[in-house]
Amino acid sequence: MKQVRWLVWLIIVSQLFTAFVGRSLNPFAAYIGESFMLTNLQIGFLPTALFVGQFLATLPMGFIADKVATNRLMLLLMSIVGSGFLLLATIDGNYYIALLFIMMAGLGYGGMHPVTNKMLVQLYPMQKIALPMGVKQMSITLGSALSSIVLIAIAEYIGWQQTVAMASILLLLIGISVYMLLKPYEETFRSHSATEVSLISQMKKLMSSTPLFFSTLVALILMGIQVTFNTYLLLYLIEVKVWAVYLAGLALACSEIFGALGRVLWGIISDKLLRSNRWVVLLIIAVWIPSGLYGLHIVQDRLLLVIIIATIGFSLSGFNGIWMNLAVESVPKMLSGSASGYSVTFASVGVFIIPPLFGYILDQTSYLHAGAFLACVSSFCVLIIIVMLFKEKKRRVLN
């Protein structure tokens, strides 16, 4: 059991530092926007480029993870993320080349989700996977929080490009180190074909799962709102609330830290208080978001604002653990990697749409109208969850 925990911690460390670099777009959006002289719409396309890469890579990587040694895949993906951001740090002022390098990094960042999910499934039985899955998902927001605290502080002294370069090199070194530590256990992480049928037949099996479809649809909306919130929070606090850059970065870090806690605590809440009903948790999250955004607009006290930001982060970032549990629980264990890849891939569509649209509304109107747009989108998410709850209730009655 100690050996399993050691392997899990290596997976978590890998995911954490991948997020540390990959999610650095959130705190650096203001720096990149100023350096490249971008509009809010153009800033909105920065995270979109990352998730375009995620969209392209996640589903294929999910299927590959069901067939190939996952420890090797993890090294490959960490190398892609590190290389993409290292290249980003070398350019000066070319917005479209920057988008290309960010998209390249997104290929590795997105592929990490199904691969690390598959690695946990290879180590744990399904009935015991909720906690390690939640901790692994928590490491993503912790990595993002660390980037907000550490990288902004360094960037204030040496510049954002040099800071990104240093972080990228660190990720490459960690990827090699973790691979060497996992290599003696490669047989544990060796995958075999989940099925002899075609890729199309596997897709049909995944698409026939109603819980997987609805959880992916909800994740599409919540992921889009989450990335929008993380991207524009720093700008909002600086421009509207007139906060210093580092103070705004600390608020973003606070949001991410509470989001990391949410990824674990929401799973515990669903197991202990809601009889493992993940859908009720998603409903609570979706209902709170409009209220939190309204509070963010009307409150002026800094301490109270940080508390509101923390609760939004707890909800928006915290939903990922519940979502990943729903994805892997909705299919047979041998298709867990494919299900994760399928769900993350199609949920990424929300990131293509919502952040740029938010940026466009912001350019044309104000933060008030753009925030109202997010509240309306979240309300639509509530309706979808209610429909799914009725379907689940009807299914239990029929059974």
Can you characterise this structure?
This protein has 399 residues and is mostly helical. The chain has one domain: Growth Hormone, Chain: A (Up-down Bundle). Helix content is 83%, strand content 0%. The protein has 16 helices and no strands. Helix 1 (2-22) packs antiparallel against helix 5 (95-123), helix 5 (95-123) packs antiparallel against helix 14 and helix 9 (210-239) runs parallel beside helix 15 (349-364). The longest helix is centred in the last third of the chain and has 32 residues, at 367-398. It is globular, with a radius of gyration of 20 Å. The two termini are 38 Å apart. The mean pLDDT is 85. InterPro entries: MFS (IPR011701), MFS-Transporter (IPR052952), MFS_dom (IPR020846), MFS_trans_sf (IPR036259). Residues 7-395 form the Major facilitator superfamily (MFS) profile domain. The chain crosses the membrane at residues 7-25, 45-65, 72-89, 95-116, 137-158, 164-182, 212-238, 244-266, 278-297, 303-328, 340-361, 367-390.
Global mean pLDDT: 85
CATH architecture: Up-down Bundle
Cα shape: globular
Tell me, what is the CATH class? Mainly Alpha
CATH superfamily: MFS general substrate transporter like domains
Helix content: over 70%
How large a portion of the residues is in β-strands, by DSSP E? Answer: under 5%
CATH fold topology:
Growth Hormone, Chain: A
Distance linking N and C termini: 38 Å
Major beta sheet summary: none
**Distinct helical segment count:** 16
List unreliable stretches of 5+ residues. Answer: none
| Helix-strand sequence | HHHHHHHHHHHHHHHH
Number of domains: 1
Structural class: mainly alpha
Determine Rg (CA atoms, Å).
Answer: 20 Å
